[in-house]
């Protein structure tokens, strides 16, 4: 281990004691574990109800869903229903269905096999109640696109499957689960995400003991309080993107989300890694254990705390990796994950600088011979001042794209 890496690790460890949030452990994939603590308290990115409903409808439209009768709904979404074992007969569930916006559809879904004997079905039912704080707006917004109750079933099943992976002893390795976690951390922060994990553990325990719909409802509402309205909106949007086409869809549709540019910045501040890395395979695992978040990085996909931000060098030696080539290389700046779709460049706000790091320049020229420059491009992403940072070749190839808060050029 080099002295530079020892210094990075030691300074990071010293910083943990005075951090205002819980630290994140970053496994760089090169035998170095860096502890990242946010340098300041980051305010969660709020998604208001109007923006949330607008984007949700757009995502659903692009999934090509349609309004269906109860019979059609039952056939299409059996794979995300409550299970296959016979349900416990009684008036309790029938009374609950009578309170829903479309009780006939509710009963049809329950007839597919909900049973109190099935613990996983009880958890899915409990999580369906957790959305109640925001569901009135969802119902009104989506009823012309998809059956609202069907959507709730889909989201509840997807949420249960995701949280099962999060709390499992093994690290998250599925790219779609890593992308989901990244979005949640970007919008609500590391502490809120870890609280969400603890809240899910309590929901699971409460649903294990539940013997009535009322107890499941109470468990779900408690978890809804942990999520909060903003957290619920973020999760619904992220889960909808995942249901629409997995990790690839989450990467391509992410810029549609309200506040996406700020979220891309917040990922680096909150957790010490780049959102673009998480959405393009640069993060190999995420795990939660004893209240600690550990992020495993692919060699060459360097965490933010390992980058040398000074102009001229711009990249830490570890970014070069030990493999045959560089990661995070794209055919153009607009194709880089995390590029703000609403970005408007500032007039005379772009500067180019020679690449002073000779090792990095040599690696870049292996990708494309000739001139490479470091670009700082200031502009606006909605109401926010941002600066796009990246290395660019003469033909337009881009390496190490990042979005920074504020403007970088004088």
Would you spell out the secondary-structure blueprint of this structure?
Elements: H1 3-16, E1 24-27, E2 33-36, H2 49-62, H3 70-76, H4 91-98, H5 103-110, H6 119-130, H7 132-142, H8 148-167, H9 175-188, H10 190-209, H11 213-243, H12 246-253, H13 260-271, H14 275-279, E3 283-289, E4 292-297, E5 329-330, E6 343-354, H15 358-367, E7 372-381, E8 384-393, E9 398-405
Parallel strand pairs: 1-4
Antiparallel strand pairs: 1-2, 3-4, 5-9, 6-7, 7-8, 8-9
Keywords: Membrane, Transmembrane, Transmembrane helix
Organism: Myxococcus stipitatus (strain DSM 14675 / JCM 12634 / Mx s8)
Protein name: Lipoprotein
What does it look like?
Keywords: Membrane, Transmembrane, Transmembrane helix. The chain crosses the membrane at residues 149-168, 175-194, 232-252. This is Lipoprotein. By secondary structure, this protein is α+β, with helices and mostly antiparallel strands. The chain has 2 domains: 49-266, no CATH class; 307-410, no CATH class. Helix content is 47%, strand content 15%. The protein contains 15 helices and 9 strands. It has helices spanning 3-16, 49-62, 70-76, 91-98, 103-110, 119-130, 132-142, 148-167, 175-188, 190-209, 213-243, 246-253, 260-271, 275-279, 358-367; strands at residues 24-27, 33-36, 283-289, 292-297, 329-330, 343-354, 372-381, 384-393, 398-405. Strands 5-9-8-7-6 form a 5-stranded antiparallel sheet. Strands 2-1-4-3 form a 4-stranded mixed sheet. Strand 7 (372-381) and strand 8 (384-393) form a beta hairpin. The longest helix is centred in the middle third of the chain and has 31 residues, at 213-243. The protein is globular and about 70 Å long.
